[in-house]
Each structure stands twice: as C-alpha cells, then as structure tokens.
Amino acid sequence: MHLSILTSITGVAVLAYIVELLRRQQLREKYAAIWLTIGLAIAPLGFFPSLLDSTARRLGVASGVSLVLFAGFVLVLLVSLHLSWEVSRLESETRTLAEDVALIRAHLAEHGALPARPEHTGPSEHTALPEHTAGTARTPEATP
To answer: 11-37: buried (b, 16+ CB within 10 Å) or exposed (e) per residue?
Structure first.
C-alpha cells in the first residue's frame, strides 16, 4: 500500500472520529474546531503529497513531506503545552473551590449550622474508600 493512500485513509478516519466525538458530545466544540481545521488542512496532503513541495523549497526544506513532519512535531508540542496550561488552570480553580468550601464549612461550624458527623472525617484526611464504592457518587450524608 502506498504511503499516500495510507495517509489519506488515516486522515479521513481521524476526521470521521472527531465528528463522531463531537456528535456524541464527548469533545467540546472549542477543541473540535481546532482538530477539524487541522484535519481538513492535512487530509488533502495525503491524497496529493506534492502540494507542499514548492512551499518547502521556498523555506529551504528538502521536501513537502519533511515540512509536514516538522509542522506536525510543532503542532504536537503546542497541543501538549496548551493541555499543560489547561491542567494548571483547572488545578488552581479546584484548589480555590476546595478552599472556599473549607471556609464555608468552618463558618457553618462556627455558627452551629453544620450537622455533627463523628464518623466522617472530611476529604482533607484522605480516607480511602472501599474498592466497591471508589469512583461512585457519594450519598448526601457523606458529602461535605
């Protein structure tokens, strides 16, 4: 099988997978737009790999395939950086929310509005859940 045919089939399959994730609402629109744009720009290059040869020659790159490989590496690097930024932002937001909940609980406890729960030690003590309840929703009594 020629590399261009394999690349084309892979590009179309990835585009179809992105559309399916978007249809099932498992991928947010802001990320899907980026991936669809990249996929629509890359998929024709699989069918016609010589499209970038003139651009590559002007940039001093040996071939269009090398240029696509370099651009792919840069893209993966940027996506990785963006995901790191997103995780850092979400971690900060989660920490702020946990601090707010702790302050609200302390305020409620100070005014006697927080019901006493002697068995529950709170999420700050990192109690391990039994294996059968791990990952499931907590009951309202156990929720802080």
So the answer is: beeebeebeeebeeeebeeebbeebbe
DSSP designation for 50: G
CB of 101 within 8 A of CB of 144? Answer: yes
Question: Left, alpha or beta for 112 (phi > 0: left; psi -120 to 50: alpha)?
Answer: left
**Could you give the percent of the chain with pLDDT greater than 90?**
28
Given a contact cutoff of 8 angstroms between Cβ atoms, the answer to whether 56 and 63 are in contact is yes
Helix, strand, coil % (nearest 5) of the chain?
A: 70, 0, 30
Q: What are phi and psi of 28, to 5 degrees?
A: -70, 155
Taking 70 as the threshold, does the pLDDT of residue 98 lie above it? yes
The interaxial angle of helices 64-110 and 29-47, nearest 10 deg, is: 170
Per-residue confidence (pLDDT) for residue 101, from 0 to 100: 95
d(CA 50, CA 98): 54
Q: What is the mean pLDDT of residues 36-48?
A: 81
pLDDT at position 96, please? Answer: 97
- Would you give the end-to-end CA distance of the chain in angstroms? 59
